[in-house]
Each structure stands twice: as structure tokens, then as C-alpha cells.
Amino acid sequence: MEQDASDSRPAACTVNAGLHSSSSTGSSTGDNDHRAMRADDGAGAQRRPPPRNRRFTIAAASPVGSSLAVAAAAEAAAASTAKNGSTAAARRRSFTYVEAAATHSGHRRRSLATADLMAVFYPPNTLAQPTITDAPFEDVGTASWEPTLERAIRSIVSIKAKCVRSFDTESSGTYTATGFVVDAEAGLILSNRHVVNPGPVVAQAVFVNYEEVDLQPVYRDPVHDFGFFRFDPRQLRFMAAEEIRLAPHKAKVGMEIRVVGNDAGEKLSILAGTLARLDRTAPEYGAGEYNDFNTFYMQAASGTSGGSSGSPVLDIHGDAVALNAGGSSKAASSFYLPLPRV
């Protein structure tokens, strides 16, 4: 049985010389101390036995007292270390899915692959995630939505795509979605992972003036719901592509936003909303479907529907503060991927 550190006596040991048990509680430590003292007396030490029924203290300066004090101190340190270690381990287990799974399944050894996946399976830190950002509201001054949207729609495209073969979580078929130019010189368009598609896909982008350009998928994120298409800017003959700046630091609860994209199959729709949450859990679209994880989402009641995936969430200055990814079929709630994940 482990002895609590508060029961140890590192400086001295109290012994009842007239009884076989050191105290009325009968602790094993007291019994061992008493036996060690009696063995030392029987080994020929020239000492007078203490009077019966008289309590006395062996000082730590004596050889017996020193050994007992060291042993008690070591036992107390071991108990304290074990207690602190178990507390730290419990705290660690509460923050990692991997260690929790290992605990519930017994003493299972984690392989190197499992250890490498710890970075992927770390849950979001709810203690560090702010529900309201510290960034102050910007003074919009004379800013207006009309010129902002007129400029932004030149960077937003409607995407027509066809997946020629089912692969991973996506099935074959045709679909429409949205994207927006983030690098006009390189011809990069940001959209969702489920739009870029992990399978073989043929896609075209339609700009605001109805010019069409071919798209090539260049990146699909393995965890979060974003990806990139590329087009050749030289294919645009009647307009110059413009880009939208990414400004994730501007996101704030209460911010007025516009979601601009190919909502419900329309070429261009502008939906208004107000950011209500920055710490929503990632939406779940069902078993067998692609589901984002290991991140928070933003939420607003903008009422987006199919076709608006990949739309930029704009502030009044025309900067993108989030990426539209999904919505609720039972309410007007829309879910946005935070741009720090991109």
C-alpha cells in the first residue's frame, strides 16, 4: 500500500519502545522503524534500553535516524512524483484523442505511424479559441457595398465541372460551384476541396462577362475543405482578371458580410448576413461523405444553398474573411471555413 507524503517523517521517527506496534494506527512504517531499532540494540550497541511505555524521538543525526529519514524522504518524493505524474498524464489525455484511445484500450503500444498522426488528431483548443475576436470594428466611413461588390464580382467565377469517375468520397457526375481569384498573375482560383474534387475532373470557369476558361486542379487539401484551380490568364481577351485579398484577421462576431457566388445554380447571387459565431464545430454531412475536422467553422444566417460552395465571404472593403463551405437544410445557417486554414 502506498503511503501518502503527508504521513512520512523525513526528519525524525517516533517510536513506542514498550509496544510491538509503533502507534495505535499500526502503520507498517512504524513497525519497521521499531524493528530496526531493536535489531541495532541486539547487535551489541552499548546503550541502555529506554524505559517501558515511554515515547522518545530518534534524531536524524543518528545513523538509524538518518537512514530512516532518507528512506522516508525518498518514499515521500516517489509518492509525490507518482501523484504529479498521474495528474499530468490525465491532463494530457484530456487533450489528445490518441492517448485517450490508448488508455481505454489498455496498455496498447503506439506505432510510429500513430505518433506521426498525433498532429492530425489533436482536437481544437477550445480554451484558446476566442468566441469574439479582439480586433476592433473598422471605421467604414464612407465605404459602401455598391462599389465594393462591383469590383469584387470581377474576381468571382462560376465553375462548371464534371467528375468522370467516382473516387474517394466524391461520386461521378456534373455539378456547379463557385471560386474566386486569389492570384491574378499566376491564375489561381480558391474553392472547396469537394469542388476541386479528389477524382479526375474536367472544369471550366465562367467570369462575369461570360468568358470561359479551362481549369486544371492543382491542389486538394487532405484535411480541410479547400483546394485550388489554375487557369491561363492569357485566355481572357475582353477583361483583366482581378484578385480578392484574404484577410482572416478581420473576422469578428457582429460583422456585416456578403456571400457572393453561384447560389442555387444561378450565375451570380449576393446574399447578406452577419457573422454570429467563430467557434462552431465543423459541419457533418453524413457517413461516407467528406467531413472536415480538426478545426472550427464560422456561422452566419446567410441562407446559402447548392452551387455557392467556394464563394468568398466578403467584408464591406471587399476582402475575403472566410470561405463558404456548406449550409443547413433545416435553417438559414451557413458554414464558413476560416481562412487561416488555407
Summarize the structure.
The protein is of the alpha+beta class and 342 residues long.
How would you characterize this protein structure?
The protein has 342 residues and is α+β, with helices and mostly antiparallel strands. The chain contains seven helices and 14 strands. The protein has helices spanning 28-42, 63-93, 97-104, 112-116, 118-121, 145-152, 193-196; strands at 13-16, 55-58, 156-163, 173-183, 188-191, 201-206, 212-220, 227-230, 256-261, 269-281, 296-300, 312-314, 320-327, 334-338. Strands 3-4-5-8-7-6 form a six-stranded antiparallel β-barrel. A six-stranded antiparallel beta barrel has the order 9-10-11-14-13-12. A hairpin with a 6-residue loop joins strand 13 (320-327) and strand 14.
Write down the overall geometry: globular
Please state the CA-atom Rg, rounded to the nearest Å.
35 Å
- The percentage of residues in β strands lies in 25-35%
The topology string of helices and strands comes to: EHEHHHHHEEEHEEEEEEEEE
**Helix and strand composition category:** alpha+beta
What does the main sheet amount to? 6 strands, antiparallel, barrel
The total strand number stands at 14
* Low-confidence runs: 1-45, 53-67, 90-123
Mean pLDDT score, rounded? 74
Q: What topology does this entry show?
A:
Layout (H helix, E strand, L loop, with lengths): L12 E4 L11 H15 L12 E4 L4 H31 L3 H8 L7 H5 L1 H4 L23 H8 L3 E8 L9 E11 L4 E4 L1 H4 L4 E6 L5 E9 L6 E4 L25 E6 L7 E13 L14 E5 L11 E3 L5 E8 L6 E5 L4
Antiparallel strand pairs: 1-2, 3-4, 3-6, 4-5, 5-8, 6-7, 7-8, 9-10, 9-12, 10-11, 11-14, 12-13, 13-14
